[in-house]
């Protein structure tokens, strides 16, 4: 850990929203008097239809949490209508197309009309409060309209990342019984077309309950059409009224479902509710990014991930901010794209993933230095641990040593930032997510569940509820309890390991379970394994992660073919294709090793620890192999290990 590099709060952040004294005072109050602290925060950040009876009530062992119960509000009003008196003509969404010549400014007034028309279109198709709507979209403004239109009528959105395969889309539509899908003919990314509507058609072949598919015309290419079910977005939405009365929902009514991977089984539908979620998204947006009125904020995530939900749509819009939404990829047309966009739109705050920083870093400094980036004030990262080298490059080259970097740790389940520096309050240590946000009480646990005091490393857990906490796993509350609240009684278990240094800074060390983080995308090893064993020539598969220079982690698959099946290049390709078909291109294994057998204990359990060590090429530290049923299996795997 580069303990010796500490970057103090720069002069330009001395008047930040949160100073060191304010952080201490607010954090203290958020822990000692949470009812007062969060009651005030809720008044300051949100507009309510009716007030609450209780600020918070929770019971971790039962997986229950309620924030602001008794209160009601509408999320789209909080993100749009209430800003109209001051901001009708301010840009709400600044859209930058894949093609650098395309961009669009959508004002708050326009956003209200677009969202209301779409909400009316949904109503006209029979969508009502509580219904689930699947959004499978490219990064175009209609994706945000769709989320907000659902919120306006109290429908529950389930955004599915446009890179997921038809099979993965089908599973998600069925799991939450979405009866409406919003998509586009095709997406455009890095000059390439993504066949979204064709993917939806394949998925819907197995989803008889879907009655409506709204299709945005993005590229204008030909698509198949199912009369009655499919509806062109533009025509249908344009014919609707621009007035749509917002539906007042209860604080704990669901806002969205977002699928994410765990260590076992199929992806889980993480359920978030309305008020608490929006409150934490809004408060973290303002304080962590030290957002100032009128600034342009750019989060490069896709709306298909939680980062896009909280920091492209809900957090920025709840604050009346200008949020930049980018359709393309950081390396198209070339590695200067992000920096050119920053100059073009005078972006003040730039928030991206370490994998993108590493991919741009290897292209050298020139693509950065040919741009000015004078508008930049603050940088941020999210999604995976950032290695100090990438951090230093981001800081010195991209930020010209002027802009603090907020390294934000959080999860789909936490809904919003949990551990992060506040740029006006904390000196930065490259690679450290630093300190808990207001109301977040952390602990590090030993294997036996005892708390570690002071310096040390252990399992990262949260000791009390926070407003944007996961409320349930859609359709399977027991799974919520089993996954997050059973490992250590009385705590929320994050699945991450962390270290706390002598100054109290937290350093996230990565997942301690069988979840991979590939280019910032979460994936269960079990999901990839299930895809591989679908092949009839495959007897068994075990998947682990290994360190990858750009992706952070790569996918390493050990595959045992059936007796008599040839380990051919053709089989190799079929396995890759299966992963793409079952999950999506992000699930392509980087390495497949043919394994005559897998190392197992005498009771038949695969010893992943050993497979991980072989994949990481750490052959000297395989540890105890004496419990293996057949130790020669390991020798064979080591000898046959492909060169990486
Ligand atoms: C990892 C993304 C280190 C972590 C918002 C977590 C991080 C998982 C950081 C959640 C960070 C996220 N430093 N690791 N700043 N941020 N992670 O649900 O392992 O896609 O558990 O949410 O990403 O991934 P998810």
Automatic annotation (TrEMBL):
UniProt-listed Enzyme Commission number(s): 6.2.1.1
Residues where CoA binds: 189-192, 307, 519
Catalyzed reactions: acetate + ATP + CoA = acetyl-CoA + AMP + diphosphate
Cofactor(s) required for function per UniProt: Mg(2+)
Binding site for ATP: 383-385, 407-412, 496, 511, 522
Acetyl-coenzyme A synthetase N-terminal domain: residues covered: 23-79
GO cellular component, one term: cytosol
InterPro entries associated with the record: Ac_CoA_lig, ACAS_N, AMP-bd_C, AMP-bd_C_sf, AMP-binding_CS, AMP-dep_synth/lig_dom, ANL_N_sf
Chain sites annotated for binding Mg(2+): 533, 535, 538
Keyword terms, alphabetized: Acetylation, ATP-binding, Ligase, Magnesium, Metal-binding, Nucleotide-binding
Post-translational modification: Acetylated. Deacetylation by the SIR2-homolog deacetylase activates the enzyme.
Domain AMP-binding enzyme C-terminal positions: 527-605
EC top class, as a word: ligase
Superkingdom of the source species: Bacteria
Modified residues (N6-acetyllysine): 605
Domain spans labelled AMP-dependent synthetase/ligase: 84-465
Coiled coil spans: none
Ranges that cross the membrane: none
Protein family (similarity comment): Belongs to the ATP-dependent AMP-binding enzyme family.
Function, as annotated: Catalyzes the conversion of acetate into acetyl-CoA (AcCoA), an essential intermediate at the junction of anabolic and catabolic pathways. AcsA undergoes a two-step reaction. In the first half reaction, AcsA combines acetate with ATP to form acetyl-adenylate (AcAMP) intermediate. In the second half reaction, it can then transfer the acetyl group from AcAMP to the sulfhydryl group of CoA, forming the product AcCoA.
Protein name: Acetyl-coenzyme A synthetase
Gene: acsA
């Amino acid at each position: 850990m580069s303990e010796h590099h500490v970057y103090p709060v720069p002069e330009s952040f001395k008047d930040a929203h949160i100073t060191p004294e304010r952080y201490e005072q607010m954090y203290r109050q958020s822990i000692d008097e949470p009812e007062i602290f969060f009651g005030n925060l809720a008044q300051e950040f949100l507009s309510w239809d009716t007030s609450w009876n209780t600020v918070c009530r929770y019971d971790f062992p039962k997986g229950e949490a309620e924030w602001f119960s008794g209160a009601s509000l509408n999320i789209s009003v909080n993100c749009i209508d209430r800003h109209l008196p001051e901001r009708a003509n301010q840009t709400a969404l600044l859209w930058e197309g894949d093609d650098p010549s395309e961009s669009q400014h959508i004002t708050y007034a326009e956003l209200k009309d677009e969202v209301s028309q779409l909400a009316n279109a949904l109503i006209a198709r029979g969508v009502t409060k509580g219904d689930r709507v699947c959004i499978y979209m490219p990064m175009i403004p209609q994706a945000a309209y769709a989320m907000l239109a659902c919120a306006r009528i109290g429908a529950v959105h389930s955004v599915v990342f446009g890179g997921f395969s038809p099979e993965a889309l089908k599973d998600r539509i069925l799991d939450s019984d979405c009866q409406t899908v919003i998509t586009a003919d095709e997406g455009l990314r890095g000059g390439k077309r993504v066949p979204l509507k064709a993917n939806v058609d394949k998925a819907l072949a197995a989803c008889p309950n879907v009655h409506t598919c709204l299709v945005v015309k993005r590229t204008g290419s030909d698509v198949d059409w199912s009369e009655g079910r499919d509806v062109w977005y533009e025509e249908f939405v344009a014919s609707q009224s621009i007035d749509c009365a917002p539906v007042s929902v209860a604080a704990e009514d669901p806002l969205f479902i977002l699928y994410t991977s765990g260590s076992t089984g199929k992806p889980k539908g993480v359920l978030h509710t309305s008020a608490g979620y929006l409150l934490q998204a809004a408060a973290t947006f303002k304080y962590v990014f030290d957002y100032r009125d009128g600034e342009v904020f750019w989060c490069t995530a896709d709306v298909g991930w939680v980062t896009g939900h909280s920091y492209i749509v809900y957090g920025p819009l709840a604050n009346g901010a200008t949020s930049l939404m980018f359709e393309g990829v950081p390396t198209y047309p070339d590695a200067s794209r992000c920096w050119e966009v920053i100059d073009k739109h005078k972006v003040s705050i730039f928030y991206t993933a370490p994998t993108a920083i590493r991919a741009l870093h290897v292209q050298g400094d020139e693509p950065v230095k040919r741009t000015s980036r004078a508008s930049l004030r603050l940088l941020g990262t999210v999604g995976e641990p950032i290695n100090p080298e990438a951090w230093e490059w981001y800081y010195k080259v991209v930020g010209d040593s002027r802009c603090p970097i907020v390294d934000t740790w959080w999860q789909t389940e936490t809904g919003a930032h949990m551990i992060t520096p506040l740029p006006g309050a904390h000196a930065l240590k490259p690679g450290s997510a630093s300190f808990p946000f207001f109301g977040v009480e952390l602990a590090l646990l030993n294997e036996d569940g005892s708390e570690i005091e002071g310096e040390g490393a252990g399992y990262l857990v949260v000791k009390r509820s926070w407003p944007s906490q996961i409320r349930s796993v859609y359709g399977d509350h027991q799974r919520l309890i089993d996954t997050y609240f059973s490992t250590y009684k009385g705590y929320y278990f994050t699945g991450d390991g962390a270290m706390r240094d002598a100054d109290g800074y937290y350093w996230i060390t990565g997942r301690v379970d069988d979840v991979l983080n590939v280019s910032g995308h979460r994936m269960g090893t079990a999901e990839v394994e299930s895809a591989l064993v679908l092949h009839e020539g495959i007897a068994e598969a075990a998947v682990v992660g290994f360190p990858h220079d750009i992706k952070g982690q790569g996918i390493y698959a050990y595959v045992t073919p059936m007796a008599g099946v040839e380990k051919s290049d053709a089989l190799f390709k079929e396995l890759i294709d299966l992963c793409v078909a079952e999950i999506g291109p992000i699930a392509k294994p980087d390495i497949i090793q043919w394994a005559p057998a897998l190392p197992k204990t005498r009771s038949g359990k695969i010893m992943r620890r050993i497979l991980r060590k072989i994949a990481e090429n750490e052959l000297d530290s395989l540890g105890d192999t004496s419990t293996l049923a057949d130790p020669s299996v390991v020798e064979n795997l080591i000898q046959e290990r492909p060169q990486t």
